[in-house]
Amino acid sequence: MHCLVFDVETIPDIELGRRLHGLEGIEDGQVGQIMLAQRRQDTGNEFLSLEQHRIVAISVALRSRDTFRLWTLGEAASGEAELITRFFEGIERYSPDLVSWNGTGFDLPVLHYRALRHGVPAPRYWEVGDDDLAFRYNNYLNRFHWRHLDLMDVLSGYQHRGRAGLGSVASLLGLPGKLGMGGDQVWEQYRAGNIAGIRDYCETDVLNTYLIYLRFELIRGRLSAAQHAAEVLRVREYLAAQSAPHLQQFLAAWPAT
């Protein structure tokens, strides 16, 4: 197996909010509230349009050769441009198959806008076959190609009404699901200075996504039952060897089957 599972966490782009709404001199928290209120007025909900999100964490899990590894890019103090650069540098170097939950609908478009904002080059990611024919029929950008597998998109049959949340599907499979935080709490936690907690939460989302991916590989015949059991055991052994409290909490909440 060889894949890179990823997830991003975001907050409102306060700098952009100030420009959009003429809010110079207004405190960050108030700008964020105005952005959310304006969105609610325009659409009936507070979910900001994708270009108005700023990335504060990108977590990844790499399954390659005989290893499994989970980490969050950069450090807690790393700026958005550094996080995005590190993400696309990994793709540039290794061209991994990407796996996500709602990556087509959220994570990747946000990364596109923010890479555009910071001028982050990513020629391998944007390749569609002009310079590498192998990417003509299997690239990161085509929804129906497999170089990026959006599990939510595929499992829903590409139907909006068939979509389910990551936490719900994780629970369906007996996985820990959301632990201690939800995506709608990231802005609040960021304002409270809990960057470490956001990074930990992002990692547990990646773990849930990867374990759902393993089950998907089982049902589509790319893993046998024995291979699937071995891959799950690999994750359990990895977590057991880690000292981070959020990973130990995940392992404790994941019943053996």
What does this structure look like?
- There is one protein chain.
- The protein has 11 helices and 5 strands, in the order E-H-H-E-E-H-E-H-H-E-H-H-H-H-H-H.
- It is α/β, with parallel strands linked by helices and 257 residues long.
- The chain has a single domain, classed as Nucleotidyltransferase, domain 5.
- A 5-stranded mixed β-sheet has the order 3-2-1-4-5, with helices on both faces.
- The protein is globular and about 60 Å long.
What layout of secondary structure does this protein have?
Blueprint: E1 2-12, H1 14-21, H2 28-43, E2 53-64, E3 67-72, H3 80-94, E4 98-100, H4 103-118, H5 123-126, E5 148-150, H6 151-155, H7 166-172, H8 186-191, H9 195-219, H10 225-240, H11 245-252
Helix pairs in contact: 1-2, 3-4, 7-9, 9-10
CATH class value: Alpha Beta
Radius of gyration over alpha carbons? Answer: 19 Å
How would you name the CATH homologous superfamily?
Ribonuclease H-like superfamily/Ribonuclease H
Overall morphology: globular
Number of strands: 5
Spatially, the strands of the biggest sheet line up as 3-2-1-4-5
The average pLDDT score comes to: 96
Largest sheet: 5 strands, mixed
Order of helices and strands: EHHEEHEHHEHHHHHH
Structural class: alpha/beta
> What percentage of amino acids are in beta strands?
5-15%
**Count of separate DSSP helical elements:** 11
